[in-house]
Structure formats: C-alpha cells, structure tokens
Predict the 3D structure of the following.
Amino acid sequence: MSVDQRLVLALLAVWLLLIAPYPVSLDGWAVTLVLALLTLDVVLGMRTGWLAFARGGRLDEREAALRDRAFRLAFRLAALGIATMLVTGYLSAIVGFFVEHQPSPVGPPNPIGARGIAALLELLAIAPTAVIAWLQPRPVQQPASSWRLGWLPLLVVPFSALLWLLAVNALPPRSALAHRVPGGLSMADATCGDFTARRETGFGFGGAIRLQVAVCWNGHQAFAVGDTTLPAPASLPAEEYAGFRMDPGLTNCRPQSGDSDFGRITQGCTETIDQDGTMHYQVRGRVWPAAGGLGARDLRLELTVTRDGRIVNFG
C-alpha cells in the first residue's frame, strides 16, 4: 500500500470519527478533528499536484483521464457519504435517548448540525482529490527549487484555527426560541406549556446552552414541572408535585447532542416564584471554544411566566 493510500485511509478514519453516533457530543474535540482533516486535505492536494482543481487545458491525456474517472467515482462516494451521515444521525438520536438519557427529538433527527456541516463540506471538497491520490501510481514530483513554496498551503491550518477562534469570540450570540401552549402535559386545574430555547456562539461552531422546561399555571402560581430538584410550588399539593419525577422529556437542564461538539459547556438552571406567583426560570452557562479557557463566553437564557400564563420574558 502506497503512502497516498495510507493518507486516504487516515482521512476516512478521521471523517468517520466526526460523524460517529457515539459519543453523542464530542466535548469540544470536533475542531481538532476538523483541523486534522484540513491538514490531510492539504497534504493530499500537494501530493496530487492539485489535479482535481487544475484547468483542463493544462493536463495531458493521462491526467485528464485520471481526473475524469476520479470525479465519476467521487460523485458516487459523496452519495454514499451523505447516506452514511443520515444513518448516523438517526443512530445518534437513539444513542442519546437510551444511553445519554436525552429527550427524544421533536420530528426526525437532524444530522446537519455544525458537526454535520463540517463533515459534508469535507466530503464534497476532498472526494475527487482522495480518489486521485488512491488511484495515481506515484505522487506528483515537485521541482527542488519550489520545495519550500510547495509547503506554504499548510499555513491554511493554523490560519483557519485562528480565524475560527476570532469568529467564535467576535460574532454575537444567536438564539432560537419555541413554545407550545397547551403542551404535552395535562394537569387538573392548571394549563401547561412547553418552552425550548437555544443560545449559541459562532453560529453553532462554538457551543450552545439550552433551555427546555414544561411550565404550568393555575391562577395562583406558575411553576416548572419535571425536575424535582427545583422548589415545589406552594399552590400545588406536595404529593401531586412529587408524582412528576425527574423527566428529561419535560424539563432538562443540560446540553444536548451537538451543543458541545465544538466547545466545552457547563450550565445550571434556577427557578424562583415571587409573591405574585410569577415564575422566573433562568439558565446560565459558560462555553469554552478552546483549551485552557481561551475565548470563554458566558451565556444566559431567561423565561418569565405569570400565574395566569402570560409570557413576560423569553430569550
């Protein structure tokens, strides 16, 4: 087996790690895998003379035939890779529900998160070059005088890492909110609703905190249901509230799959009910997009619901 073929196998192994259904979250290691893929991309590109991106008029008959064959095979490989991503997306949802005890997603799983986007772009960009590297009899020989300049493309790896870190810290956080009233929970003499929110940095390529809470209100108080570590409402009999044990499908205070792929996350949730019966639910989190706390950001999500179900603050 040639050196180029070993590099292609290494590229495939790292790509499979990026889309693997387990672990559900990579705990900040996704950026390391992406940089490893980028390094292998550049090395394979240099060893193939960037044949996949060369103009047709500059190629001889053998090179043109090799490139055409590589693109035909790459199209089939890309289709196979996308199908694999869809399968691993469903497997990730199953593993998250049964192993990580995460709530089942609403609707079909979505494998095209930040992790999936990185894997898809890698697949589309490098497939022809990987096929050429696998099929070519020997690497393209560079003139000795251009050896130093030939390795300059590797500078794209540290530059990309720096650009990612700057973007994660400079881009404003982005939030996505959703609520449903009535929700999936029913309670005597009360109305309930489901509230979900996600606040992310770097458009998902940094990290995210998540709010997921079931809230009920009975005209006396509004209160969260499904997390018995939160204070019990005074307007609800203790035995009735105790019947709603820890249920991550109702109220869940931890990151879910995809939230911590590109950054390590810690978050905590608090609930207070004031004298007017208004519930204040708050999520505070800290996101580390790099090792050693470099570029760490504090994020917050809040939900305020009155005793008659009016949403005062959400986001």
